[in-house]
């Protein structure tokens, strides 16, 4: 392994260690550089070879959380192409993401309304990316006007994130009930968007 590969590997270990520290009681603004360095098994001075400060690490965590979620939902769309309910598969995939990446989702959820302006703006950008991708998918599949598709996508993302927050510390049975409820709510939104668009063209 060359030096560049070692550097990338250490950087990823720092990111993974930071995610592990972000439990239900600790936000990005509450973790310290020393904690992260200790969890990553590096000297605190080595941290600066990868990040200028703890805030840069925090922004990287937000970016990685958003990217992980978007990649997972792209995989869900590929599963949909094989047959099945768009809403059903999407919600199930989202809930699987939360169960398997609780601290990753906590970053997006908590920092969206956190005390750091930089973190809030970063999360808002990630949510906007997610919303835009969903809107593009809606335009392509339901052939709705762009402004209607974007409003539908925004409503759906808010519903799903709210359900995700509820599911975060729930057990398997509760998560299943939350999933079924949000699937119905999302169908309400979808039917409403289609009806709204149809009525405007009459």
Structure description:
This protein is mostly helical and 202 residues long. The chain has one domain (54-201): Tetracycline Repressor, domain 2 (Orthogonal Bundle), CATH 1.10.357.10. The chain has nine helices and no strands. α8 (146-167) packs antiparallel against α9. The longest helix has 30 residues, at 172-201. The radius of gyration is 19 Å and the shape is elongated. It starts with a helix and ends with a helix.
What is the structure about, briefly put?
With 202 residues, the chain is mainly α. Helices cover 80% and strands 0% of the residues.
Label this structure with key terms.
202 residues; mainly alpha; Tetracycline Repressor, domain 2; elongated
Which helices and strands occur, and which strands form pairs?
Elements: H1 3-21, H2 33-40, H3 44-47, H4 54-81, H5 86-100, H6 102-111, H7 117-142, H8 146-167, H9 172-201
């Amino acid at each position: 392994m060359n030096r560049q590969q070692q550097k990338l590997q250490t950087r990823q270990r720092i990111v993974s260690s930071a995610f592990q520290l972000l439990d239900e009681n600790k936000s990005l603004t509450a973790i310290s550089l020393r904690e992260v360095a200790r969890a990553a098994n590096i000297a605190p001075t080595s941290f600066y070879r990868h990040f200028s400060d703890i805030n840069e690490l925090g922004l990287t965590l937000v970016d990685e959380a958003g990217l992980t979620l978007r990649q997972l939902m792209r995989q869900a769309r590929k599963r949909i192409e094989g047959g099945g309910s768009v809403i059903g598969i999407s919600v199930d995939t989202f809930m699987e993401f939360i169960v398997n990446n609780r601290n990753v989702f906590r970053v997006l959820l908590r920092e969206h309304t956190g005390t750091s302006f930089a973190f809030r703006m970063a999360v808002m950008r990630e949510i906007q990316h997610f919303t835009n991708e969903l809107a593009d998918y809606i335009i392509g599949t339901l052939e709705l006007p762009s402004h209607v598709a974007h409003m539908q996508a925004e409503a759906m993302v808010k519903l799903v994130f709210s359900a995700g927050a509820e599911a975060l510390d729930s057990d398997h049975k509760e998560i299943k009930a939350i999933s079924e409820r949000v699937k119905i709510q999302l169908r309400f939104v979808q039917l409403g968007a289609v009806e709204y668009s149809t009525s405007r063209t009459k």
